[in-house]
Design goal:
Elements (H helix, E strand, L loop, with lengths): L10 H18 L60 H33 L14 H9 L14 H5 L2 H14 L7 E7 L5 E6 L2 H18 L16 H14 L4 E6 L3 H4 L2 H8 L17 H10 L3 E3 L2 E3 L12 H23 L5 E6 L2 E6 L2 H17 L10 E4 L4 H7 L8 E3 L2 E7 L5 E7 L1 H17 L5 H19 L5 H20 L9 H11 L10 H8 L21
Length: about 575
Amino acid sequence: MRGAIALPGSKTTSRQEGSCRNLRDLASGRAAPVPRRSAPGRRGAEAGDERGREVGPRDSSDEAAERGRATGGGGGGAKGLPSRKRGAGTEGNAEQRSTYRTQSRKRVTQALSRVRQAARQRKQERFTALLHHVNVDTLRLAFDALKREAAAGVDGMTWQDYEAELEPRLEDLVGRVHRGAYVPQPSRRVYIPKADGRQRPRAIAALEDKIVQGAIVMVLNAIYEEDFLGFSYGFRPGRGTHDGLDALTVAITSRKVNWILDADIRSFFDTVSQDWLIRFLEHRIGDRGPSAHGLDPWGIIRLVRKWLRAGILEEGVVSVSDQGTGQGSVISPLLANVYLHYVLDLWADRWRRRNATGDMIIVRYADDVVAGFEREADARRFLDELRARFEAFALSLHPAKTRLIEFGRFAASNRNRRGLGKPETFNFLGFTFICGQTRAGKFLVKRVSRRDRVRATLKEVKSELRRRMHRSIPEQGGWLKQVVTGFFNYHAVPTNGRALSGFRHGIIRYWLRTLRRRSQRHDLTWEKMIKLAADWLPKPGIRHPWPRDRFAVKHPRWEPYAGKPLVRFCAGGAQ
């Protein structure tokens, strides 16, 4: 609907996030998922296996799969498509576009599968001549995965405008990329309001830059998905926010966790050292020497350097910096994961194995890091060494937002014995984690929607309802249904039922005020409003399974037919 704001959790936002997931799933270069059967002894965890110590599987790429969403939709009329009979109309054109994309997907998947296999078998391999994988097929898939209604960059080109002559433009673009004539344009700076009142800077790249970046992400993900560790969940194919939430919840309840380190990296996307980033990329991307395909010998690295130095356009002035990755660009999440893989993940995994005297867990989603410790001494030593580690790579922890709190199965009893109050809480991915108990008195990690985020969303709804005050009730009800459905789709997790009911109640209350203000002689009572809301707004209900159930399905740690018993997460491997 025109004029609608993209509220957190709304269908509009979900659609935009879905398009981003499409691109990340395409980057995995895998075909549709096939049910996997257990083979005797195949995935059973062995005693002392280090994979049993991670929150999530270390090699998750075998479980990532392409999504069919990326092949749906798409307008017609592009030049260079196979000829069609007259009278076939839009339906026939769309069908041929779908066939064309399917063939492109198959070719890209087969090509990248060989890269992925080599990356899995040779962990120290430096890949050369990767640029020949950036062809018309990969560019077409990257284009189809972009958001149709995304804002235009400095070029002013929209998705629909580019699609009008798609094939000739892609042919010209791939030629410029291979000849070294492709020149990225500066990204347009915009600001998005945050829940705390501040503004988050975002960089909107030109459309062709998005396409080329999407193709490069496909190629690089085939390599780095074999390297990234299991506790990294942000912006990866086949993984999402709820996977990270489930992993953290299962780790806290299944492991000996008494202390939680909630680490906040200050302005991460704006302070990344570009020199260090290029050096990290060159660990695996070695585009040096002559190319067997006659391509640019500095292909991938040279393209990344161009994007980093393209600059930001703000108020008519282009500024170029040697720091930052341009948060909001297509390739920025992957570059951030590569940077933190070498700066944090590998170091933290080694620290856990060599320096921790007790149990330790860690979960990272992009630049949000949560670590759990059995012993306070380990937690404080890790925090001190983490600060020094970040300073060596141009990063820093936010002093006010980074906290070490007592949290876990015995936190409430220990604090009560010392005469302290309830255990403190921490926030992660839109939820507040709370130490609670079941009706039977057992320890339970409660996840509740962050109050500040809920209030900010309701405030935006209130403002938008005033703008839509004199529109018809079906139009208002249809829009509010999208908002409530989107909120429930993300926040409807176990132990969060009260927040769902409170959000829906707030929506009804603001809707009632808006309808009453349309006339001074209204007769709309609360009872009538409840009936009206029942016709349009979905009722609150839990839509996500318990974390342990979903985590066990996605990351099986035992094989019933292999004679292996259930293996728990523990510091020493299997117990």
